[in-house]
Amino acid sequence: MPAIRLLTPEDAPMYAALRREMLVESPWAFLRSIDDDFAVVEGAIAAKLAENENDIAGAVDDGPAPRLLASAGVVRLDPCKTRHRALIWGVYVTPAARGKGLGRAVMNLAINTARTWPGVECIWLSVSDRTPAARALYESLGFATWGTEPDAIRIAGESAAEHHMHLRL
Ligand SMILES: CC(C)(COP(=O)(O)OP(=O)(O)OC[C@H]1O[C@@H](n2cnc3c(N)ncnc32)[C@H](O)[C@@H]1OP(=O)(O)O)[C@@H](O)C(=O)NCCC(=O)NCCS
Q: pLDDT for 28-69, tens place per residue?
């Protein structure tokens, strides 16, 4: 079983590789694409991983060449009027490792990390109507859909809706 843990700035190269993979492998699942993602900016991932209340839960295969198999980002919203809220983003499991509980494991660590931030009372996320497995995972963890946004993203002229979900802690 891979180690389920929060990533550190030293894990930035491993995360960069998985981030590139997810943006190419699952384009409907993420708002960003490889051309406009924060991860292409030199040093941006390590800087993010060094911040407080801005974490990435990962499943790390600690073999001779350590590799990241899954991730779930969690960040506390910065504006003072929204400090009771956290956002989960970038949930992904590499295809060969799916269906083995890693998605649930990194989500649980992301949620439990937000629970440790004093005053955080809810978590929100958005999920495409093209990724039903992800929506099922979030529902199984207690997230409820509060709205659906039609035509939220477009790729090459095709459109998809996004479900907005939240979890009260
Ligand atoms: C969604 C995703 C993260 C799930 O990861 P995973 O490791 O395969 O999921 P797990 O094995 O932990 O399964 C957890 C739950 O997810 C749901 N799920 C997983 N695969 C599913 C599938 N093929 N169909 C329906 N539900 C599924 C189930 O509710 C499952 O619980 P169960 O095993 O008790 O039935 C993974 O499929 C993925 O990376 N998909 C592409 C990227 C994506 O859609 N990201 C979401 C961005 S919002």
A: 999 999 999 988 888 999 999 999 999 999 999 988 888 999
At 54, list the tokens. Answer: 């801005």
Q: Which residue has the tokens 């389920």?
A: 4
Question: Per the structure block, which two tokens stand in for 153?
Answer: 């993203």
58 forms beta bridges with 5, 71
Counts for the chain of helices (H) and strands (E), in that order: 4, 7
Ligand 1 centre to CA of 131 (Å) is 9
Residue whose Cα lies nearest atom 18 of ligand 1: it is 133
Our mutation pick for probing the ligand 1 site, out of 69, 93, 131, 141, counting the most ligand atoms within 8 A of Cβ, is 93
Q: In the chain, what are the domain boundaries?
A: 3-168
Cβ neighbours of 34 (radius 10 Å): 15
What CATH number labels 3-168? Answer: 3.40.630.30
Residue whose CA is at the smallest distance from ligand 1 atom 21: 133
